[in-house]
Amino acid sequence: MAVYLKRYLLAVLLGTMALAVFQPAEAVAQTTGKRISVSFKDKPLASILDFVGRQGDYEVTYTDDVRNDTLTVTISFENVDALQAVQSLLAKTAFAYNVDGKKINVYRMEQDKETAFTLKGLVKDKDGQGVSFATVQIKGTTQGTTTDLDGRFTMKVDNQEGNVTISSVGFDTKTVKYDARRELSVLLPSAEKMLGEVSVIAYGKRNTREQVGAIGSVNAEDLQKVPSPSLENLLQGRIAGVDVTNLSGSPGGGGSKVTIRGFNSLNQQGVNDGTPLYVVDGVPVANDPQNMGGINALAGLDPSSIESVQVLKDAASASLYGSRAGNGVILITTKKGKAGRNEIQVNVSQSMSWLPATPKQTIGKAERDIALMLAKKYRTAHYDAATDRIVLPNDYGDTWGWGDDLDGGMDYLWRNGNVMTGDRKISPIMQDSLNTFYNNRTNWWKYGFRLGRVTKADVQLAGGTENMRYMANAGVYDETGIMINSNFRRYSLLTNLDFKLSTKLDVFVRLNMAYTNQSAGSGGRVQGLTFDPKQTPSVLPGKGSTAEREAVKQLRDVDQTNSNYNLRLNGGFNYSPIKGLRITSTASIDHYFTRIYIFRPSYLMYDNLSEARGSNAAMTNLQTENIATYNVPLPQEHKLELMAGVTYNYDLMQTIGGWAKGGPTNQVKYVGEGWPSLLKDISGQAKPAKDFTSNKEDQAMLSFLGRAAYGYKKKYLGEFSVRRDGSSVFGSNVRWGTFPSVGLGWAFSEERFMKKLWWLSFAKLRASWGRSGQKFQEPYLALGVLSETDVFDGNAGLIPAQMSNPHLTWEKSDQYDLGLDLQVLDYRLKFKLDYYYKYSSNLLMQKYLPGNFFYTDKVWDNISAISNEGIEFEMQADLIRSKDLNLSVGLNVSHNRNLFRKTHNGEDLNDKVLGRPVYGIYTFQDEGIVKDESEIPYHYSQTGARLPLYFGNPNYPLRVGGRKIKDQNMDGKIDNSDLYYAGSTLPTAYGGINGHLDWKGFNVDVLFSYVLGRKVMNMVQNSAFSFNKTVNPLMGHFRANEYWSKDNPNAKKPALEFADPGYLGHFDGNVDSNIENISFLRLKQLVLGYTLPATWFKSKFIKSVNVYLSGENLFMLTNYSGLDPEVIDPYTGKDDGSQYPLNRKLTLGINVKF
């Protein structure tokens, strides 16, 4: 941590020095039309005025006082006219100007003139802070002065009453009347760029200039330009520290995995999968993909109805959500109506999507030739118990004698006169090379996929009066996936109503209803391929053939539908009994009802019996919140906000499901009459043909929370918060958890000694510490669960299926954050830099019990820990900022270092290593090809026999030409116990690059996402999973000289005779020599739009029309040898070719406002 902190502080120091020292002496002026873009360093005032005058827009004259003044100026102009340039140039000087037609006169303000009256005053901003170096000038004269550091001024005036004009860079110019007998106080309104933005925080709102936590935000407009079923996918590449991995391109958006500042939990058996907390309009969103059939809980929320998205990354900003904030918090605020602005908005778009590419394959005649070659080479040894030795067959007499299928190692071509019959004979696909039926080059990937489409439409009505505001959004999203029989449809309605009943009381109602339906969905978080394109020979004919029907029957003939109904209702009131006090009370319900149904015909089942499965799940979350916020009345330079509240949550889960087998025909897909109650298994014993289960779970949580936020002159900021949660899932003695946080901020740009840095617009240092928590999702994990056991002595009994642990308690995360916010050059360049360290302890992990205690050998306990440490950087630059042309670019980059810190006994786990990242690649270690018998390791069996290293069982011994796998536990055999940690699956860095261009109604938006330095394993290459004697497409380019033989002893790949699934690590891809260190840059989004000129619409009914063309995943640059590195599982890092690929999409849309 100390090393990271030193690097961080050094980066801050060097960055500040670079901005202060390395300023350009003078740039080449760009004067397109009558605009000026130029920089000067240490130039006399008169020289700069001469340059401005030469641009031909205004004639610039000045007095001798100006000409002879020794003042030198360093300044930059960016796309300004002559008048704006002069105004900016003369700010903070003793000179003023007036305009006479096209002539600008510059002169020194008269400050020492003897007059009878003295005017004193104070110029301040909206928060009561003094405005330094503001120009104060008597209107129509040359008399004036500038304010001091506190915003105060004194000057002589000719008249007792008159008008005075005040101006300052970053503020709007204002003219007011004065009376010299009274001190003048002027409130100077800030220009929009000076105000900062008001963003949503935990239980409130805060100006971004006053925030002390690490909070990221997304522009709502960026979420609406690309049709997407869910919000998560739209967050990719937009916020530093937020890693969005698309594990599947399936319709419905269920394949997006979001992590904020690294993995914070072990995720054993899904107890805590690291998903952040989503809060929509103050309502926590239930997110249980397993019980929702893989449908994303956020899929019911139309992105077009979202007003803002804030991501609370550090504990100081998120800890008020207590035990639910351990993985970060994402706050989603939907749109509201605005008084006096009645508007109807219609958005319609149509998209086409397709499979970008198919994997490398060897197909056609080469596929058959390779299969024949493999069959000739194929040999399987066996262990002879009589002689206690391994037998390597050299002829037919050395075979097992266990049947024709095993004799000779199942060598189709090595029969020595023994004729095979039926299914045992050589496959006609391999032998009948003259038959045109077996001479095709069919790419079965293309038969499982199609041209997809997305139709999206929504209508939004918004408006209201001072006493009532409304917003309603109704939409439909209909997606036909690129994989056959994969579809998704959503109907949604969102309404927001706000009523102002009096000056002290207003009430509100938020309603979101949605219905979603997904075909060919998954039962879990991520949907993969539901058919395997590698399992059908490419030499078979394609379209219209029996082979086609067989190849895609898993897609076409399985009827699987997941549907979800969601109702989210939130209502409450705001009451202000006295000035500064606001009491908010809300009640909400978030209800999901999910129905899953699957039917598989008999010819797809191993027992030739059709099967129907169905389940219904109802999830209900009830919440009440009562929050009081008080802005304490203090002098203007002080600001103190106090907040206290209490919340209550109740979660209920109810499921009912069942299955049945053996329907009368495959046309009867729903269970009813004709479905048997009993069936006989292979042994003839009667077994139930139907099963029915139900389940009910509930849990509750009571919370108390409070916050105090203090600011002095908007320079010194402090915030303290605390939350105390009590949950029913824990034992009574450990039920309560306390989660405090503290944050400090220093806006050092507002200090007097920083005012001389003209290029510095705003700068703030932030530091925070906080503790957040995480409770497990299972409500009875600490209490233990009983299950029914087999019948004993005629009676059924119960046994502990899961041991109780009444001491099980909260997972905790302590997080430290140090940040810098920097804005320079009139707010054109904005930087954010954050360093964080998070230590998550008391993490849930199963530990082994001594012996077998009541049929269970494990118990859950709070005994592990993880750390996350990283740096985040964001930059946004407004390169051009004018009326007709605006150009901005942005960049964010994140680095996270994740480590597994602690176990219950200080030892490594089977799939996790202490001192290494939590998730890594666990595989076999490749020690090269055995070239000589002497290289084969031997060991002695229990009987004393000397055996070579073998794979799984003695029937697969290592021999010359095979791959030597390191025997990690030195037990003489290679199995899963020999898997080792081969590297982290986490990238070195990740982030996004964005750009935006506006020009006379045209707009261009571009977004790139990238990953640098991630280790993945391409298990598909080298014909993994299909590289054996059967005829199948080979997933790669086959080159015979790459494989070991006596004539090719230096080859890097094993001999072809080892192409057997029993030889682990040979041709299954599961070996560390297949690991690649990859990076990629993906064009995530490109939008081209045009807003039609308003003059085209004479009718006042139409306000604006915008047409746009957008593209997603248009191209990717990568060094990965496989298909798509993004969809690889981040938990394992292994590409097994089973992922639903990301599609490429083009969208044409129109947005009309009335």
Measured distance between first and last alpha carbons:
56 Å
- The oligomeric status of these chains comes to single chain
Mean pLDDT: 81
Number of strands: 59
What summary fits the major beta sheet?
22 strands, antiparallel, barrel
Q: Assess the beta-strand content as a share of residues.
A: over 45%
Q: What structural class do you assign from the helix and strand content?
A: mainly beta
User: What's the Cα radius of gyration?
Assistant: 36 Å
- Spans of 5+ residues with little confidence (pLDDT < 50)? 1-33, 399-421, 522-526
Shape: elongated
Number of helical elements:
12
- As a percent range, the share of helical residues equals under 10%
Descriptors:
45% strand; 5-stranded mixed sheet; 1154 residues; disordered N terminus; 22-stranded antiparallel barrel; mainly beta; 59 strands
Characterize this entry briefly.
By secondary structure, the chain is mostly beta strands. It is built from 12 helices and 59 strands.
Helix-strand layout with pairing:
Elements lengths: L1 H20 L14 E9 H9 L5 E4 L1 H5 L3 E9 L1 H9 L4 E6 L2 E6 L8 E8 L10 E4 L5 E3 L5 E6 L3 E7 L6 E6 L4 E4 L4 H4 L2 E4 L2 E4 L7 E4 L12 H4 L7 E5 L9 E5 L16 E4 L2 E2 L21 E7 L2 H4 L10 E6 L8 E12 L10 H13 L4 E3 L4 E3 L36 H4 L13 H4 L3 E13 L3 E13 L6 E14 L4 E15 L26 H6 L1 H4 L2 E17 L5 E20 L10 E22 L5 E24 L16 E3 L5 E3 L1 E23 L3 E12 L8 E11 L13 E15 L10 E4 L9 E5 L8 E14 L4 E25 L2 E26 L3 E18 L17 E4 L2 E4 L8 E3 L5 E3 L1 E2 L11 E3 L7 E2 L5 E5 L4 E11 L2 E17 L56 E17 L12 E9 L3 E3 L15 E2 L8 E10 L1
Parallel strand pairs: 2-5, 6-12, 18-21, 49-51, 54-58
Antiparallel strand pairs: 1-3, 4-5, 6-9, 7-8, 7-10, 10-11, 13-14, 15-20, 16-17, 18-19, 20-21, 22-25, 22-59, 23-24, 25-26, 26-27, 27-28, 28-29, 29-30, 30-31, 31-32, 32-35, 33-34, 35-36, 36-37, 37-38, 38-41, 39-40, 41-42, 42-43, 43-44, 44-53, 45-52, 46-50, 47-48, 53-54, 54-55, 55-56, 55-57, 56-59
Helix pairs in contact: 2-4
